[in-house]
Amino acid sequence: MKDNKAVSKIKNMLSGEKLQRIIIISGIIGITLIFLSSYIDLGSLSGSDAEEEFSVTTYSTEIRTDLEEVISKIEGAGATEVLLTMENSVEYVYLDDSTTKTKEVEPVIRGVLVVCEGGDDPVIVERVTEAVTKALDISTAKVCITKLSE
What we know:
This protein is an alpha+beta fold. It is 47% helix and 19% strand. Strands 1-4-5 form a 3-stranded mixed β-sheet, covered by helices on one side. Residues 46-52 have low confidence and may be disordered.
């Protein structure tokens, strides 16, 4: 008996004009949300920290500034400028479902050019070359050291 009363109340509430109004209002709200979603970035409103996208430019700039700072501290090196060349951009590795990112492979450094005041002294060149090759885990063939013009 109670089931029949509940079913009849639901049928009365959803009958006729009430049901039509609910459907129309729901539709209008849905269309409005879809329209607003193109103007509002809902990802930035979430409380969780969004994963930063990897930038090759930022990556190379950080390495370059770090190298310049360290090399200029090597005795005799003096003022230093560094130029990096990259083999490729970042590579993303995904699982078989193509939606789950497992890791990011950083770009490979193709070569390093170091221009420093002590670049004409063979001892300084050797120290700087060793520092760069050890710091970046690259071969000496990928490093060029030269004197900074005055």
